[in-house]
Write a sequence for this structure.
């Protein structure tokens, strides 16, 4: 056994989580290693002093202050995590769309542009008379500019999703901070 493993077993011994087999290996190592023996003795002495020390109650205001800080940090975390996820998803979407325009063959880009154009027109067609007033978007132009329009479309959607997540999260954060300060 090496000294590093011995230190972890000393900690397990102090926490009363050591198995009989581990205890035997610890005793064997400590009997032959002076450094680990003295380190174990020091830890056992500290543990004994701490065990004999009476517990002291903290001031009454401390629990409220600590729990208020915990609530504040949770609220901030609930605000930040959706922003990070939204930003990551938006970045991945734009990077994927950019990679599609950059590395696909012209024939594949043309086919993708035509497929996106058909999907766009079928989705717009769901809105009936309102769709007729919208300008027609020709996404399938010669394989190049149409797909660049798709990239900008992905970017716009990513920014819109990120803005919505930020707005929702900031409203939620404001409500939670109000509840925390009024409680």
């Amino acid at each position: 056994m090496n000294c590093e493993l011995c230190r972890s077993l000393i900690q397990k011994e102090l926490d009363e989580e050591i198995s009989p087999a581990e205890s035997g290996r610890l005793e064997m190592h400590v009997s032959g290693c002076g450094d680990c023996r003295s380190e174990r003795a020091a830890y056992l002495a500290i543990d004994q002093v701490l065990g004999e020390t009476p517990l002291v109650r903290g001031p009454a205001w401390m629990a409220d202050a600590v729990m208020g800080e915990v609530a504040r940090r949770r609220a901030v975390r609930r605000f930040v995590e959706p922003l990070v996820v939204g930003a990551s998803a938006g970045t991945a979407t734009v990077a994927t769309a950019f990679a599609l325009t950059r590395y696909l063959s012209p024939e594949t880009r043309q086919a993708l542009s035509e497929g996106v154009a058909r999907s766009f027109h079928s989705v717009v067609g769901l809105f009936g008379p309102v769709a007729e007033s919208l300008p027609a978007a020709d996404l399938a132009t010669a394989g190049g500019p149409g797909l660049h329009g798709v990239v900008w479309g992905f970017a716009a959607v990513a920014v819109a999703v990120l803005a919505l997540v930020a707005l929702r999260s900031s409203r939620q954060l404001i409500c939670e901070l109000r509840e925390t300060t009024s409680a």
Summary: DSSP finds seven helices and no strands in the chain. Residues 134-145 have pLDDT under 50 and may be disordered. The chain has two domains: 3-52, 60-182. The CA atoms of residues 45 and 51 lie 10 Å apart.
